[in-house]
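For the sake of transparency, this paper describes our internal protein records without simplification. The remainder of this section carries one protein's record, kept here as part of the documentation:
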Amino acid sequence: MAFIGFDVYGTLVDPLGMDRPLREHVGELAERFAATWRERQIDWTFRRALMGRYVDFDAVTRDAFRITCAMLGVDLRTAEPGLLEAYRRLPAFADATEGLIQLAEAGHRLVAFSNGVGATLRGLLIHARLMPPLAEVVSVDEVGTYKPSPAVYHHLVARGGEDPERTWLVSSNAWDVLGAKSAGLRAAWVRRSPRAHWDGGGIAEPDLEVAALTELPTRLPR
């Protein structure tokens, strides 16, 4: 059986689900705001990892929120605390619970593996009813840098106690899958949108491609 690390944001829970709480503050800009917030968040994890200027993911999320406000020309200073709290209660994707339950019943060891802060992730995953079947959280905060740095994938391997080829990453983010493959792990790409296309830049290909987490139990090697 495999040791499997599941990316959280974009794979198990949906950051774009923030459009709902945002709608009462920014109206028709809600979807654009949620998407831009997510883009700025990812961009700043990349930049901070490259520059060696680590701050935790909660701080990055807050800063990404503020720059999104500036970019879209909205003033949400009063609403900021409530919206940041709502980010800790993102909705789970519809296939997440069943897919994780089936994998756990098959004997695989499942953990959350994320850029997020450990305590924040636990609260988020408990609220989303994903912990259990996830057994624990592995956070990049324990390493002090962000995906796709090789150090964070090596940390996942060390936490699992398995060889890299018995350690899997499951993620909807192609750059995350590439990071895992570059570090010697196996990886499954979750194609969350039919409009998404694998963009590996000639670096690597995923070991598996699935449209939903419920496909994994029958496709992962035992």
